[in-house]
Structure formats: structure tokens, C-alpha cells
């Protein structure tokens, strides 16, 4: 039943060429949401998985950036803030978009889709776009130490993480002058504060007014973002081989990123963000510091230290991963990225544990299944009670449950990728998803 319910969520949130994260709160296409959704969709509708990524990359900019939102012109401007009128930019395709990015997990999604249903033609089609995405980050955001900076908390995907509290103090918050649409659907106790939003909008406005060129007052080297970049290069090496191209440049880049992260972001059993403007580590207790576990070249001693930290500071032995350490004073079990458990963050850490520590990876899957069985496919969950928070019927929660169950199994159902689609019943597979041509 849980598999069919997951597919029902994805069917309900399908919008013709892509999946919205949720119908009410997030009515457009979000960048890393689409990558995670594709990873789940491929188990029951490979065509939708490919369409998800092709639709997103159809709005890629000439400089290679993949915007974090692609706006649906059929959705009224007032349905989401900040909308197209705020960002004031269009992709070469004509689509209205935002001007910032999100973690580059898309190459990993493309490769995982290929593993489930091999499609070399799809990989050849999207490979140049994935390469351009990485090239933009190197050209526009890379430091001399080899690390990639984010220029807005929204680019981390973990918007109001306590890890950003210190660098955000340097951001001058202006007058609000905007209406928060999110509070119409979700309690204010579960969302970023008004003060947070004032700073977010001030940063975004300044970046927009610079023509999306000046990084501005917030420049942070985030462990999750950099780990995603490194994992993308590893995935691109495999994709390049399928396409008959040389994987070595991608392998070299992945190794260089891993080395840079170890040298500059690792300390005391956890990876930490670094403020590029001050050169100082931002010592935090964010679970983003565990995501480098997904880097295949991470040294064994650091893997072991991260696992120890996950067990000691994040209570990973209980099978649920909070987004911020419960032992930290900033922890809040219900407020967005300040403590609740998110399925996508759990999935990223699970990627690094499947082969190295299956004894911990299995309970993570079981914890995710318990959460959705109790509370449904919510946006995020209290890591202790598993009470659901945020919006309901959240797409990546449904999609990543499908992927995790496909590998791990569920209540006597053995791990079997193709059988997940059969158990889900193939709902909606016959729908015409169209052919999305990259301009």
C-alpha cells in the first residue's frame, strides 16, 4: 500500500512535463526537487524520470547555471513569493526562472535513472548540459582552494539551517514590503521567521540588481553543495564512459573536490561550512556535514569518524536522521531545517552508508518508512515523534521512499528495483509525457 500511495502522490503532482513539489505551497518546478523526484519516478515511469530532468535543463541559462525555480506561466504571480516579477529574468528558452541555483544532484539522478532502465541516448542528450552546469560552478563560484561557494541560503537547499545564522548577521535586512504566501498553508512555527525572510529577500534583490554576477555579502562553502558537486563528477565519469568519452577529467575533478573538502572543511569528526569572506570555518552541528559520506574517494579514517559523529551527535542508531544535532542549543524539532528529519537529506547520507555500513543504512530506510506510515508523505518530520510537518503529499518524500524500498525491501518484500514498479501498480505510466527538446 505504501508504494501505491507514493505513486499516487507523484501522479497528483505531475504537471505535464515535470513534478511540482506540492500543489499548494510549491506550484512551480524546483531544481533539486526534480532530481530527487526523477530518482523515484524511474522505478515506475522511466519516461517521466527522463522528462523531469529534460524539462528542467530546458531552462538552463547560457552560462550553464540551472535555476533553482522554473516558473509555470499558468500559475498566477501571487501564488508564490518571490515569483517571476521579483527575479526579472528569463532563460534562453523563454521560461521565467529564478537567478540562483541549488545543489547539483542532477548528474547522480541521470545516472541512477540509467541504471534502472538503460538509455544511452538519454545520457548522450543530457550529458553536455550536466557538464555545463558543473562548468558554471567552477567559473563563477570556485575559490583558489577548489571549493564552490553558495551566495544565498536558498542555494544550500537547507534554507534556515542554524549553520547560516552567523554569516547572515552580516546581511542588512531591508523593509519587508512583501507578503509571505507560505504561511497560508503551513504554521509559522514550522517555517523560517520573518526576520529570516527579510534577509533572504535582501540578498536575492542585491544579487538580481547586480545582473546575477556579484556574489554579495553571503558567500559560504557548504559541505552538502560541495559533496553534491563531487558526487556529480563521479557520476559524470560513468556517464562519459557510456557516451564513449573520456571519464578521466571527471574522475580527476571528483578527487580534487574530495581532497579540498578534507583539507579545508573537515574538523573534529564533521564537515563544516566555511565563510569565504572571512576564511573561517562555521563550526556547526548540521547533518549537511555528514553528506560527504557519498563521496567514493573519502578516506577510510574520515568515514569512520563521520559514522561515529552520526551515532553520537545525531542518534543515527535510532534510524532517523535529524537535520541538526539534537544536542545543540539551536535544535528545533519542528522548524524547517533547524532540526526536523528530511527524507532527501537521509537519502544522501544513506548513499554513503549502503556499501560501507549496511548495518546503519538498513535502519535508515526502516525509519523513513515508519515516518511516512505514521504521518504520510510530509515535507519533514519530528525526528523523535515522527509527527509530520510542512506541506502534505510532498513529491521527493514519495519518490525517495520508492528508491529506498527498491534497494532495501519492505516488510518482507525483497529489494528488487523493477518489482517496486509492479507493486506500485504502474499508475499513470500510460500518460503521454511528451518529448522535451533541449534548445
Automatic annotation (TrEMBL):
PANTHER family: MANNOSYL-OLIGOSACCHARIDE GLUCOSIDASE. The keyword Transmembrane helix does not apply. Gene3D superfamilies: 1.50.10.10. Coiled coil: none annotated. GO terms for biological process: oligosaccharide metabolic process; protein N-linked glycosylation. InterPro entries: 6-hairpin_glycosidase_sf, 6hp_glycosidase-like_sf, Glycoside_hydrolase_63, MGH1-like_GH. This is Mannosylglycerate hydrolase MGH1-like glycoside hydrolase domain-containing protein. GO terms for molecular function: Glc3Man9GlcNAc2 oligosaccharide glucosidase activity. Pfam families: MGH1-like_GH. Belongs to the glycosyl hydrolase 63 family. It comes from Nonomuraea jiangxiensis. Residues 26-397 form the Mannosylglycerate hydrolase MGH1-like glycoside hydrolase domain. Keywords: Glycosidase, Hydrolase.
